[in-house]
Every structure is written in C-alpha cells, then in structure tokens.
C-alpha cells in the first residue's frame, strides 16, 4: 500500500494569480501535494506546473486523457517533460490506449528522472449507478463496472486507478494491495457534497485503505483554507 500522508489539494482555480494567492496562505515550509486539473491547465498552461514544482510541491496533473492510442501516446510524451509526479487517463479509452499512454510517458521522461505514476479513472465520483446505466448504457452494477475498469488498468500495466473510496476494498482484492486507489469525493462530516455522488469522510477513506485522497472545495472555498487543510490532514492521518 502506498499511503500518501498529505491530502492532495485540487487547485480548481481559473487563473494563475488565484493559485499564487492560494499558495501564499501556507507556510513556505509546508510542502503540499496539489492537483492541477483541466480548468487551471487550460488557462495557465505548463508555466503553472513549473511554478508549483519550483516551490517544492508535488503535482498530480489531472487531465484525464481519452483519445486514440497514437494521440494519447504523443500527448503523454510531451507531458512527461513537465516533471509531474502523477498523471492520468480514462480507463474507458481501453487497454491499448492505456498501454500507449504508459509508453509515451516512459519515452518522454528525461534520462535520470523518475517516470510519473500513471493511473486511470474508472467511474467518476460524480456518477451514480442510475446515471451510469442511463447515460453510458452500462447495464451492470456500478461496482462491477469500476472493478472491470480497475482490472483492465492493471492488465495495461498502469499503477492504479481513480475511484471512490467506497470501491477501494473491492479493487484491492480484485487486483493487488499495492495497486493505487486515489480517491476524490472526500467530504468532512457535514460539508456540502455538491455534484459528488459517491463520497466518504477522510477518516473512513483511511480506514478502508485509500492510498491518496483528493480534496478541492472543502479546502479552497473554506473561510480559512489553511485551517481546513490542517483539519482534513489530521483526520486523514489519524488511524
Ligand atoms: O472521479 C473523479 C475524478 C476527478 N475528480 C476531481 O477531483 C476534484 C474534487 O474536487 P471537490 O471540490 O473536492 O469535489 C475535482 O478537481 C475533480 O475534477 C473527481 O472529483 N472525481
């Protein structure tokens, strides 16, 4: 099991300046693990990754690639040069696409640098079973779909999956204990769920064996983001 003791903060901001202001609230010795997703990357580009890395923070680049294998391989080759710690694709792109992503990352990683971890999204945590069956026309249970995608991801040689904490135990027993389960949809008790459907508290996610938790709005939109982060970190680290 991997267990990353810091919650990954989802930097879902529209501008580079918003990120600078947000990070400035933290003590400079506090090294964070942050997630850069589509909104920020499309707005600020590779420069924001370089900025965050230069401050000593770890980066999960959450672009969820999903295209034909050749395109994904070429894109991963380019992204590998950014020096991020982890990135991802959609498992729905299939085994060939995921293997191509892995190859692209390996080819693009500069000599002597570590190849970023590569994980695949199973079913988004904003998807319920009813939504999956209706919109994707998948007529199995949500858990079966998630486990299917996790096994496909393992067969393609990736490091793990993005899933809800609710599926971690099932995925680990269908793959292996070292297969990464990174879980968004984390909500401290009493906080707004928003568009998330499959949620869990930080302590329950820890108990069930999540390796990484991703937390966005409960931190970024809190009145005091530093205190919100510390509270969630303490809850996640308590065993
Ligand atoms: O299945 C998924 C995959 C990715 N995400 C991302 O995680 C954060 C969650 O933010 P919250 O504000 O804590 O809901 C967000 O950036 C998503 O793009 C996910 O939620 N679920």
From TrEMBL:
Keyword presence, Lyase: yes
UniProt key word Protein transport: no
Keyword entries, A-Z: Decarboxylase, Lyase, Pyrimidine biosynthesis
Domain Orotidine 5'-phosphate decarboxylase: 6-232
Binding site for substrate: 12, 35, 62-71, 125, 187, 196, 216-217
Entry GO MF terms: orotidine-5'-phosphate decarboxylase activity
Residue numbers annotated as active site: 64
Catalytic activities: orotidine 5'-phosphate + H(+) = UMP + CO2
Listed InterPro entries: Aldolase_TIM, OMPdecase, OMPdecase_AS, OMPdecase_bac, OMPdeCOase_dom, RibuloseP-bd_barrel
Pathway given in the UniProt record: Pyrimidine metabolism; UMP biosynthesis via de novo pathway; UMP from orotate: step 2/2
SMART domains: OMPdecase (SM00934)
Catalytic activity, EC: 4.1.1.23
Record-linked HAMAP family: OMPdecase_type1_B
Family: Belongs to the OMP decarboxylase family. Type 1 subfamily.
NCBIfam families named among the record's database cross-references: PRK00230.1, pyrF
Oligomer and partners: Homodimer.
Function: Catalyzes the decarboxylation of orotidine 5'-monophosphate (OMP) to uridine 5'-monophosphate (UMP).
Identification of the protein by name: Orotidine 5'-phosphate decarboxylase
